[in-house]
Design a protein that fits this description.
The chain has 4 helices and 16 strands. With about 260 residues, the protein is α+β, with helices and mostly antiparallel strands.
Length: about 260
């Protein structure tokens, strides 16, 4: 994979109701779904944006993970999965699934940072560049947000692991800053924040771009999801808005997009 270490290259939803989730996200995001070529024993579905580019996958919760809430996870690209997994442990994180191969796809490991937020490490077999994360295209992921118990420690961990740097911050009162990060000042990937709810398990939260935030909000609610925050006007001059939502199975997800037709 041509992407630099620490680049988000794939997004994955684990859910116990893939048919319902496919229907929900198909209507909210306009994603098309298909099963990967070659066949798999497990229920796995790849979803693509309207431009035809693959963004991620959805899988039924496997038996060994039964009871795990519906959850979105990210795959971060690395050149060497085994070396990076060992580095995760050395830096105080955990390996939940040891490095292993998916024939014809690549090598991956499932790990957690020292505060407990989970993510994947991935080295794809293809030398192509993933466009799953693209802040300019509808249907793609536009933001990667880490909600954690200690953002200072988390930034230190990911800085040593992936080379991420603090690129700015926005004060959030007693909960500390909303800290932006990326590979450089001009290559911002997302942000991290301390959890506002005491005792909350750290997790990664992702925003996907829609063409109309109000249409997406209505689709979330009509589809059985719950809008928990927003729409809120995002800082900057681009006119972008965001909603935080729970999908019908409880997975947390964000949507960003423009407001059309003068909605308020």
């Amino acid at each position: 994979m041509a992407n630099r270490d620490g680049t988000p290259i794939w997004y994955e939803l684990m859910t116990d109701a893939p048919d319902a989730a496919q229907d929900f996200y198909g209507k909210v995001m306009g994603w098309s779904f298909q099963k990967p070529p070659g066949g798999l024993e497990r229920d796995y579905r790849i979803f693509a944006a309207s431009d035809g580019q693959d963004v991620g996958g959805m899988m039924r919760t496997p038996e060994h993970a039964e009871g795990r809430p519906a959850t979105w996870d990210a795959y971060f690209g690395v050149a060497d999965v085994d070396t990076m997994a060992a580095k995760v442990e050395k830096l105080g994180g955990r390996i939940h699934m040891e490095p292993q191969d998916i024939p014809g796809v690549g090598r991956f490991a499932f790990v957690a940072d020292p505060q407990g937020a989970t993510f994947y490490l991935m080295r794809g077999d293809s030398d192509g560049q993933s466009t799953a994360f693209d802040q300019m295209k509808a249907g793609h992921c536009s933001w990667n947000e880490l909600v954690t118990s200690d953002q200072t420690a988390a930034l230190g961990f990911y800085g040593k692991l992936f080379g991420w740097k603090k690129t700015g911050a926005m004060p959030m009162g007693p909960n500390g800053d909303y800290t932006f990060f990326g590979q450089s000042d001009t290559d911002m990937i997302g942000a991290m924040m301390n959890a506002q709810e005491a005792g909350r398990d750290p997790f990664w939260n992702f925003a996907f771009t829609v063409t109309d935030i109000d249409v997406a909000k209505a689709a979330v609610e009509d589809g059985g999801g719950t809008v928990t925050h927003g729409p809120i006007d995002l800082p900057g001059d681009e006119g972008d808005w965001l909603i935080q939502a729970d999908d019908p199975q409880g997975a947390k997800v964000m949507f960003t997009g423009k407001r059309k037709q003068g909605a308020v």
